[in-house]
Amino acid sequence: MRSYIRVIKRASLRHIGYLAFAMFLGVYPLIFRDPYFLYVMINVLLYAFLGEAWNVIGGYAGQCALGHAAFFGLGAYISSLLFIKLGVSPWPGMLIGALVSGGVSVAIGWPCFRLRGAYFALATIAFAEMVRVLFNHWEFVGGAVGLRLPVLGDSLSAFQFRSYLPYYCIISIFFVLSFLLVWKLSKSKTGFYWKAIKSDPDAAESLGIDTTKYKLISMFISSFLVSMGGTFYSQLVLYVDPTSVLVRDLSVRVALVAIVGGMGTIEGPVLGSFMMILLSSLIRARFGDVPGLHLVIFAIILVVMSIYKPQGMMAILEDIKSWIERRRSLGAA
Amino acid sequence: MPPDTALILGVILSGLLMGGVYALVSGGLSLIWGVLKVVNMAHGSFLMLSMYLVYWIWRLTGLDPLLTIPITVALFFLLGICVQKGIIRHILEASLVNQIFVTFGMWMLMNNLALMLWKADFRTVSNPLVSGGLGIMGVRISFPKLVSFGFSILATCAIWLFLQRTKIGIAIRAVAQDRKAAWLMGIDVDRIYEVSFGLGLATVGLAGSLLANFFSVYPYAGDIFHIFALTIVTLGGFGSISGSFIAGLIIGLAEAVSAFINPALKYFVVFGIFLIILLLKPEGLREAL
Amino acid sequence: MALLELVGVTKKFGGLIANKDISLDISRGQIVGLIGPNGAGKTTLFNVITGFHKADDGRVLFNGHEITNFRPHAVCKKGVARTFQIVKVFGEMTVLENVSVGAFNRYNSGEAAKKKALEVLELIQLGADPETRASALTFADQRKLELARALATDPELLLLDEMMAGLNLTEIKEVTNLLRRIRDKGMTLFVVEHVMEAIMPLADRVIVLHFGEKLADGKPSEVARNSAVIEAYLGEEYARGE
Amino acid sequence: MKGKLSTIVVVTVVLSLLVAACAPPTPEKVVETVVVTKVVEKEKPVEVVVTPTPGPEPEVVKIGALYPLSGAGAATGISCRDGVALAVEIINGDYDFDLPLARGKGLPNLGNAQIELSFADHAADPNIGKEEAERLITRENVVALIGPYYSSVADTASTVAERYGIPFVCPDAIAYSLGERGYKWFFRTCASNKVYVEKAYMEMLKDINEKYGLGLKTLGLLNEETLAGKMERDMELALAPEYGYEVVVDITYPEKAPDVSAEVAKIKAANPDVLIQLSYVSDAILFHKQYREQDWLPKVFIVSDAGHSDPAFLEAVGADGNFLLSRVAWAADLAKVKPMIAQVNELFKSRFGREFDERNARSFTGMIVLADAINRAGSTQPEAIRKALLETDIPEKQLITPWGVKFDPATGENILAIDVMAETLDGKWVTVWPFELAPAKIVVPVPSWEER
Q1: Class of the CATH domain delimited by C1-29+40-79+190-242
Q2: Is there a domain that residue B80 lies in?
Q3: What is the ipTM of this complex?
Q4: D44: pLDDT confidence band, cut at 50, 70 and 90?
Q5: D31 touches chain A (CB under 8 A)
Q6: Phi (first) and psi of residue C190, to 5 degrees
């Protein structure tokens, strides 16, 4: 029984954290009314959402996929094209884009999953670069100039708003849904199977797990969500071009957020995004004119973190928590 | 020689010569990947650093890039040892994702540090010792590329001999095959890692001196070479120096020919080849040699 | 009708013939030992049965159904579970989670899997706390955990690859009793083993492999006296010295 | 038990969000809304909000400068930034130049208020551009924005400025589509690509054909695969038939390539009379070395004002860089006619240690025009600045550029911005077209490598 009490006590601490974060999400727009702070938080939440999506394939299924910019770009382009050329509202456009991205990810994932380790990562990088070069020269999508969405002011059906508050609410809801989805998945059969595949693929296969199928499931879910993020981006910025939605930096940033935060944990990407994306916005605001400074600081954190705390921020929090518990139990004893 | 065939021959030749330079850069990456089993995503940035070093030596002392070769090779050999001791040593046991992202971190660090220190301006060595070109029967050959090709052949053979003949070379190949077995045979694996990483960066130092002849340096100069190097090492099979050399020629040729047909999609072709090799024959040419 | 039937199974690695034309059958409820000197092809045969290696020739039948060259997860779905020569537990997951992964083979809901896992843990009497990380277990406990995990997939046939290797005497006795308990619950066991003291008393039947060929197949006592087996194990002089 | 608690958590989140979302639309520093009457594209009228900044004339006027200071466009961004910084230094200080506001400290009509620049780095990313524009307007309380060199960022950042009713002066982005959005607060001092390709390149080629009878008929297009490259190429492809040219080779190449010999071979095979090239500095240098190595040159060689106008290009290729024609906003040889050109160049060299160049000139001029408008407006009230900008009419002799500045109220384009063409003669850019204005005589056709 002793272990079960500890589980409940630990869980409640975790839930207090969730509750606090939920309240923060709700209260933030009331305190920080200024559009700039809203815009920064929108970007932070967008990357928390993307990080959570990548966490599904990178953190849980343990596949180092470095080509998710392709799906982000597909999502952004498909919903924008449907809106500009056919007048289809971005909401259904987003779902169509996400389904197409999911399909493409499975199509490219299936052959790539035969590859092990570094080769899988390299294959995904190559795939994403091919998509970028293709979009850069494809007249229909505007080539290097990209697509400009018409500015229509406030219109829910056109997924466009004059103030940033509705955007904030939408991305918060997106993020909460992705958080719950990953939370549900991690507790389910799929989540266990992912962790097994990540830990030892052969042992997993011998226990009746079709590893390819479950890797494809993780690929589908992660690219589906990342593609939704792409649509949100195109509706927020109202401009889509290959150098902003299809570049390798984006694939790295999406993975980085989850890795620095703590892969394979539900809360990791949130921590990672708040740390890295918020930090880079603040540094850019503070030392705007020193070229490249925020990326240098970014890089130092990444290197130091990956060497000394590979499990990411979550591991640091766990250490702090256990340190507190030890102190408390010492104090009590 | 009818103009068209001369032109095409010229393109093929310059593709091969350029392939030689790519092969040299990839040789270092292949060695590091083969021995340490770490995919060095910062390889391109080291090349950028060596190009800056050559530029500053030329700018401050007027020494021609080709004469800086001994300096860059030596300095980058030492740099390789320091990087291995300082950073790579910690991540040898780490998961693949952590390894890749430490090297991503180093790539980001070096590119942006260069941007902060030397601004983003384009710097070129003007009128180096070797420049211009000559035409034999209408086929144009570029001197800097010819010299670079020569040096990269020399370097590849030197490394190959070093690996085959010398004691350390054999030890490196043993560590590449099976780290634990080599360890049991009394090989100081850590020192071998340092030497291998040092050798890997030494080739990058040499490549920097050669490229400075015809290529301008700026903080992001190394990135494109890095993508080519990844393709070449995969085609050649990591750890195989001769594999990388031949793969370098193939990729150089593919780039030149596809550029002649449709320049816009030449990277599409290169990445296409990369993906196809990965899917069909991940171990690359290594088996074939 | 035999639970497991191998017909002329052959497996070559380049020039080396690991398994040459092996045929055997195992009926339900038996404990069958598979013994033979190192490199006799025992583990290869296991890998062929469970789909980790492709058979070059021959057929594998389970409950009369053809499972030759099925992918490992399909073989497991049919009802054949296995353990590995080198222990392969999921290190970062807890004991309970490890066994639950096996249980998910038959159950979809988290709760049902957890219940099954706890049942199997009761049967195996694994001393460790279900919440501890698998990587923290002792070597013997990790082997038991791997066994529990395989059992949780509700198999009909259990392939054990050198369960006893590296265990001390008391641990061997523990595992032997454990295997008997499992067999008494209706499980069929096909056990690769080197530790003679463990396998001979336990097995109903013993098959001997030598250089990839089936040398003998019969009761442990008969096989022990078979001259070909002795020669294979101990060299000619012992075989003749009867 | 744990499951139930988590559902409570979810409910609180959704509730708090809904409260936040439907909270009364906060006034957001907004007083009255003015609807733009004139709609050019099919877009609905864009509601423009006017932010009042009452209070006495501040002794400091804050202006936001948005440029790419990191990432791919850093080289260009930093030199644009230096141009703006120099203009502000001249305005704030007391310099005996013919430039407006040079003499006397700061902005006289605002009690000699000093201009203060707050820089922001958009790293050529439209999303960051939008975020930084938000910050400059709402946190730094700038009265106007200048920048951002990249047309994609200009699109998103000027949309933000339009929403707040803050003047957005764009001295360097070339996309003509920027002027066709019917924005009230967007002003562009430089020529768009539609203007300079037609008014500068095509007209000059027509004059050359007439005056020198070279019979130029075939055209070669060589552009990097970036936004600027594609826009220029589309414009050239559209106008070529109108001016009677046949496009024999049309290459879009991946920028910053390690090797371009194949591309040059392809051009050499097509052998166009005229080649129009838009390249980044590193590619411009690589291509030029290849032209020499493959011993090929067109009869007339037009280079767009990008990599070739960066001093690093001429420094790297030396004499090989002669006889190139480029549109210029800055020609040192006009210093004889306009002394201040030399004065500005000297001051720039003393501050930044390198020659004043094209991009410095464009952003410098943009800043002068903006400061002049604020001064004439006599207040930092956005609407007043906007009116002053619309009334801007600065003749060419009061600016360092060969063209004056006067804005078209509908599009915000500078109608006087017709670039002159200059040619590199013994290592320096010399104005050669329009012929009647040009101090130096154009050298066409381009001498072959042997004749040099």
Answers
A1: alpha beta
A2: yes
A3: 0.86
A4: very low
A5: no
A6: -125, 110
